[in-house]
Structure to design on (224 residues):
């Protein structure tokens, strides 16, 4: 299974755009890239999934370059409530979480 | 649908006792996952099922842990005998692959916080 590497932590301010990059050099042809968000004392929550190029939903955008060896989760105009741990996963059926990125948003 | 339902929400037990955690997945989902989360080890996949059949249990820490899925609407994770190092939050999740043959979105339960004293 492809291993992912992402920053341990990031800080930002309310109203800013936040980009979290994940590297997955060994991604397989049939792997998809999925991001989850986890708040304290809750289970992870799906944010977005993509295979290539760009995917956008009401919460975030996911940018995937042509070689698919990395991906970037973009959160537009973050608020305090976006403070959470964000996980990048690659795979098809087996869902394995890495260490995640602890995002802290300040007023 | 009420989402993935786990019970109990909290469990405190003494070392050596048997613990059974329960999970009701979302109706129609064909994958079920059990995870354990601790500060030290993060979110670990213990085992997952596809159509009630265990596919990969390589994450189960040792023989004290066992999981079953007797039907599409129920799964259990059992620890016997329990030890203090088993203290963690245990999450159950379910997902549906449909024709895509991949998990598009896993839905997690609220978790069971287990404390073994």
């Amino acid at each position: 299974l492809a291993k992912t590497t992402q920053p341990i932590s990031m800080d930002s301010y309310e109203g800013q755009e936040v980009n979290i990059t994940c590297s997955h050099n060994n991604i397989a042809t049939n792997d998809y890239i999925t991001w989850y968000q986890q708040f304290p004392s809750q289970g992870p929550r799906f944010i977005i999934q993509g295979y290539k190029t760009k995917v956008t939903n009401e919460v975030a955008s996911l940018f995937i370059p042509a070689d698919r060896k990395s991906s970037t989760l973009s959160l537009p105009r973050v608020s305090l409530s976006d403070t959470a741990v964000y996980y990048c996963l690659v795979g098809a059926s087996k869902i394995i979480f890495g260490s995640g990125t602890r995002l802290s948003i300040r007023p | 649908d009420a989402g993935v339902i786990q019970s109990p929400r909290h469990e405190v037990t003494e070392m050596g006792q048997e613990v059974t955690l329960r999970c009701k997945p979302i109706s129609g989902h064909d994958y079920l996952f059990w995870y354990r989360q601790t500060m030290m080890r993060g979110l670990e996949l213990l085992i997952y099922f596809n159509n009630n059949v265990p596919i990969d249990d390589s994450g189960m820490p040792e023989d004290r842990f066992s999981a079953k899925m007797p039907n599409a609407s129920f799964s259990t994770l059992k620890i016997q005998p329990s030890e203090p190092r088993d203290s963690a939050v245990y999450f159950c999740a379910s997902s549906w692959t449909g024709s895509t043959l991949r998990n598009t979105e896993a839905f997690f339960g609220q978790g069971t916080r287990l404390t073994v004293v």
User: Anything to note?
Assistant: The first strand of chain B starts at residue 5 and ends at 7. Chain B touches chain A through 27 residues (CB under 8 Å). The two ends of chain B are 35 Å apart (CA to CA). The mean pLDDT of chain B is 94.
